[in-house]
């Protein structure tokens, strides 16, 4: 069973105890991080691009209604059919009805976080369809009956050995740890589904208001096949994915792959404008674009939460986050993990079941540093924490000890003499736990919650004030 957001603390503890998981995460996130840095440095206007991207997103979000209508009008003029979905259930209902009407039995899907958000696969399977994920990572996850643990690398938590064992068990391939053989087996299996499927379902990276074009980026070519081989293509798009002009894609195409995988460009960029206009052209006969709200209008209405909608789902904040690096995506118990997940999930699902997520951060700011659209995630987390505190009801975990500790600390901080005295007492007490100039594991809660997984620096033998008074630092004569 997949963990839920309600049990985040327990999920995180279980993940911390899984050495294999932590090893796989450490390797993958540090590799992505290094590549991102190198790719960003390859451009001398990286910071300008980030600012430009944010300006475009802000422009769209302030006039989203106008840009959406412009997009719809252009897309319809090229033969696309538009469907508006208020929530996940409505989106799934629309898509199931379209596939039933088409007489579909088999559906190929390309990776789409939006359809993960609506739990579309379950709805389609309930309607009697066979649904096959065609992105390799998603396919692995589907075979393992798991949920993705990263926005752009769904199987990031799996080792090569685990994938090989899965392929042997599920696809009957002889045991091997040869990556070429593993991918070739997946490719051969998936090709049959592409050839025989009636409907292809994809997500959307960007929708261009000026032309009605949808853009989808990828590395494996599976999206090309999903959107062009079956006769019907259904694209599911969050309403925030709009950009005003075609030329704006240039900015996001520089930022998205570099931030996500450290690539200068993804291998494929599919630009789809309506249906094929003649029998000799490539592409589907029918294109349906489902525009999903599912809580986005609520986020749009508030000036603080609005910026969550600027996210282009690159995954960089996950790779940079010291919490995600340790526990991975499943612990968050939601489709969107990591820092952006801790912000989006409570807004999509409500705080009742997700009150622990805004606290799943050390507020170090690493996510803000790497975000290509400059989303101030720490500020959003603090905003949500204050909402949790304000709404504090039975469903919100009461951290009585923590609250008391902060109240005492606030009193001490207001009284300089008391502050100095407490530092002196702390210095004496820490002798019991300091080893090799570090405070290691302290077995007593609540300190054990901190020290089980990180070392603390001990209090210095002389405080800044004491050194200042003795004239050891600064120059008191000036
Ligand atoms: S919040 Fe920023 S860094 Fe995180 S996934 Fe979204 S765009 Fe990428």
How would you characterize the overall build of this protein?
The protein contains 22 helices and 12 strands. The protein has 3 domains: 1-41 and 315-398, no CATH class; 43-296, NagB/RpiA/CoA transferase-like (Rossmann fold, 3-Layer(aba) Sandwich), CATH 3.40.50; 400-469, no CATH class. The termini are far apart. The protein has helices spanning 8-16, 19-41, 46-62, 64-77, 88-102, 113-118, 120-126, 136-143, 160-171, 179-196, 222-228, 248-260, 296-301, 316-320, 322-327, 338-349, 366-370, 377-390, 400-413, 416-429, 447-451, 464-469, and strands at 80-85, 106-109, 130-133, 199-202, 206-208, 213-218, 232-238, 242-243, 268-272, 286-292, 434-435, 438-439. The chain is globular and about 85 Å long. It is 49% helix and 11% strand. The chain is of the alpha/beta class. The chain has a 6-stranded parallel beta sheet with strand order 1-10-7-4-2-3, sandwiched between helices. The protein has a 4-stranded mixed beta sheet with strand order 8-5-6-9. It has a two-stranded antiparallel sheet with strand order 11-12. The model has no long low-confidence stretch (mean pLDDT 92). Iron/sulfur cluster binds next to helix 14.
At a glance:
The protein is of the alpha/beta class and 478 residues long. It has three domains: 1-41 and 315-398, no CATH class; 43-296, 3-Layer(aba) Sandwich (Rossmann fold), CATH 3.40.50.10420; 400-469, no CATH class. It has helices spanning 8-16, 19-41, 46-62, 64-77, 88-102, 113-118, 120-126, 136-143, 160-171, 179-196, 222-228, 248-260, 296-301, 316-320, 322-327, 338-349, 366-370, 377-390, 400-413, 416-429, 447-451, 464-469; strands at 80-85, 106-109, 130-133, 199-202, 206-208, 213-218, 232-238, 242-243, 268-272, 286-292, 434-435, 438-439.
